């Protein structure tokens, strides 16, 4: 089944709301630490708990997809998310709060998987994922700008009240249609399950490496800013500006979505990103740091939709999209933990080079498939 091109917007909105916590993770952890009067680092495991919920949602969705008689009710999943967000707002027991966040992560993960698959069914997945990422970045920027004022007025639990209201709004949107198993009009089903298997694995590795390398770089931006004597307030302003550039990157990816030689575009973007990271780490002046951060955010959200879109075009069954979501989230979570201070620059460049090596064969396969489709 192929969806109409107008369905990218509801899927993008659902995906954005599902990723709410991860889009504003620093602000979220700061609010939770103040809510429970604990040290921020001692509560960072709560993000891992929600990540575990996302991961379990991927596994659950994969298992249930094998049974045609069992379907996940999206509206029921949204209602579970609403209840878990509301309950979190008034929960004063940390253990119960952690359980509620696990449930929230599970329900949000199921919503995100349906949204991912809906975007993959668009006529042009590259453009669909680019628009979705732009929507996510705009949504995240709005939360980052608006939540502090709401917290000042309503208190620290305002963040969960906002999450619950936004989740309730998802019930108004049309329900995402479930993917039906099918083969490509130009490819046999056996090709998808056997001949393309190695390329699908490479594609999943590429998504994971792209997220590890970029989230690792993201985690050291504050460190590099501190070396230049940039204040915390100005760091926040710079990151907010970088978010705007990330929207530009996603919009550029949408603009070039119909360009034939995407392989060359992605290679140039990743090589440029290696240069940008080098410039960021070696920055001697504030303007160098600001410029590199903006370019880094632009490139990140320019490359990612193409990688996901290429995978979606190779795997018509849609099974790999579930794992792509899990690996994307997992890569974002572990990226900061694999960075070694004494090997910072070398390690980040190595991760980017590995990302390039993983992405390249994925686009060769896509190019060959596109050529066959035209004959």
UniProtKB/TrEMBL annotation:
Organism: Alginatibacterium sediminis
Pfam families in alphabetical order: MFS_1 (PF07690)
TM region positions: 12-29, 41-65, 96-116, 128-147, 153-173, 198-218, 238-257, 264-281, 287-308, 320-340, 346-364
Keyword list, A-Z: Membrane, Transmembrane, Transmembrane helix
UniProt key word Transferase: no
InterPro entries listed in its UniProt record: MFS, MFS_trans_sf
GO molecular function, one term: transmembrane transporter activity
Protein name per Swiss-Prot or TrEMBL: MFS transporter
Coiled coil region boundaries: none
